[in-house]
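Submission sheet (multi-component)
Chains listed below:
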Amino acid sequence: MNYTQKMLQKDALKNKTVVVTGGGSGLGKAMSQYFLELGAKVVITSRNEDKIQKAAQELTQLTSGEVLAVPCDVRHYDQVEAVVQSANKHFGSVDVLVNNAAGNFISPTERLSANAFDTIIDIVLKGTKNCTLAFGKHWIAEKQTEKVVLNIVTTYAWTGSAYVVPSATAKAGVLAMTRSLAVEWAKYGMRFNAIAPGPFPTKGAWDRLLPGNLKEQFDLAKKVPLKRVGAHQELANLAAYLVSDFSAYINGEVITIDGGEWLKGAGQFNLLEDIPEELWDMLEAMIRAKKDR
Ligand code: COA
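Outcome: structure written.
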């Protein structure tokens, strides 16, 4: 067994319908594929109609599962409400919402126009709010219970990060929303959790976060104590667990899956890792000498 293998038992998501925003590519598509393999029906959304239609075809071929592709820009509440309608019409009901759609690019903040900042906030924070509110209101009105919302955040939702300030600001808001609604809407039978992934290479994110030869200059695997980037299946395994009934008592949690990356940046003395053994011998001698005096 290893981390690239599929973790949950077959049919773990049978009879569930899952909506994955941004499900046409990257991690959204990887999660959608695994949900389908576990017996779920999946609705994928994206702004790009061609892209999701192609992704839906591909996912159907790969898994023989039932996939519905609905074009939607999560920034617009009316479009999100239309997803609620078409998903319910097609599959009868929706059990899980995965707020995965995101927008991000690196930039010094002073170079951003007000609209550039808004664009990221609108996709990430407002988009998550739109989907959560539309599905949440529907579930409450219909008195449907045992619903799950899974938000994809990032470790810099709590540390902050230079050069991706709109994204950090928006993801911090999403995390606050996750924890707040985990408490407020538990009475309606909803659970809210989040995943904070570290580096999981995808084309969409890498082209915007490490364009050109930055990929070679900043080998993100080196920043990770485990010295590797994540595999899509290990994220899909965690997501499937968190949307399944096996995690029924987990509510309001954010689970980091980053090989220890953010903690490596946080610990005050973590940089001592670069000190070679001989230098440690010298340092130890110096420290002990102080004690003897
Ligand atoms: N640096 C500075 N400003 C930038 C920029 C960059 N690299 N890229 C876009 N902008 C600005 C634009 O100039 C525009 O501002 P303006 O109207 O004041 O000129 C604003 O951001 C919106 O850009 P636009 O291209 O009109 O928005 P869009 O809605 O078509 O695209 C993005 C949204 C910019 C987030 C685009 O990268 C995208 O579609 N991303 C989705 C996928 C993604 O980001 N995946 C990674 C997730 S980690």
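Remark: The first strand starts at residue 17 and ends at 21.
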